[in-house]
Amino acid sequence: YPKLFRAADTKKRGVLGAQEAAQFLSSSKLPRKTLHDIWCLADSDNKGNLTIDEYTIACRLVAHAQNGAGEMTEDLLTVPPVKLPVFEGVQTETPPAPPTSTRHSTDDVADEVIAEEYANGIDLSSPVWRISRKHLEKYTEVFKAISTSGFVCGADARDLLIKSNLTSEVLTTIWDLADAGRDGQLSYPEFLVAMHLVTMARAGYSIPRS
């Protein structure tokens, strides 16, 4: 993002004026409404320019929008974009992935189970649906705190899902996708699916119905 900021800061002032920022962000080829929402979130104090930190926020939101996120919300800032934003005429590179380990931990196996058995129609060719290590650790911690005998009962899962403030329709869809065993409770892999779908829904991504 600092590289992108330097490319946009043609006057070398350390901040981007509204015209400079608008011109650069428009090269993302996103709809004007989306760019307006991104600007409002980045320039939260309405001062009419962007510092490098605020420009970084804008770029992250651009990346999410280009990767299929719907409404631009602050929740998107808690989810790292899967790719750097693309701006016409500016070359960016996705950072190389860290070396993978040959060790197969319980978490690794759970991740594979999600990818292979619990997708239920989700297009996993898009890396946005892959659970990051950071989120996996967070979901696992919650599971350990509320599970009994390796499962989260329906009542406990419902109470947790309701706290997301998502609509009943979305939560019902998430439950149907996660409860692959149709037994009214969530195993560890099923719980991971439910939690990640909640995270993505709150970030503005559309959840498939089947």
Automatic annotation (TrEMBL):
Protein origin, superkingdom: Eukaryota
Residues in EH domain copies: 1-85, 135-210
One MF annotation (Gene Ontology) recorded for this entry: calcium ion binding
Domain EF-hand positions: 30-65, 166-201
Pfam families: EH (PF12763)
InterPro entries linked to this entry: EF-hand-dom_pair, EF_hand_dom, EH_dom
GO process terms (BP): endocytosis; endosomal transport
Gene Ontology CC terms, in alphabetical order: cytoplasm; plasma membrane
Protein name (record): Calmodulin
Species this protein is from: Perkinsus marinus (strain ATCC 50983 / TXsc)
